[in-house]
Design brief:
Helix 2 runs antiparallel to helix 4. The protein has five helices and two strands, in the order βαααβαα. It is mostly helical and 117 residues long.
Length: 117
Amino acid sequence: MAKKLTLSGYLAQRGTKAKALTRVEAALLGIPYPLQAGWPRRYGIVEIDDDLLTQLVACAEAARRAADEKVARAREKSKSAVSQQLTLPSCTPAAVKGSAGFVLRRARRYRMRRPAP
């Protein structure tokens, strides 16, 4: 006879930082979502059979794939945005310095303190 897997055991197998359930996992296990304080104590003894375990694993894999696809799309979008940036005309400090009313200042960290008047 196989060892019975409970919800507490399932959470322990997922890892030390996995102490929450997704909405789909909660629906499969019959736990109301959003999770309330103390839910592991109330629902920790729920037994998970093999069919339910395969559904939970499939759900986790689908969520992982969706997250990977979302990251890939974001990377593609950022690469295309970088390639489409406009190039600014080159601007030398001498050209800016000669323009009327504009004075280049040193960065604050390199400026000397002004003496008190």
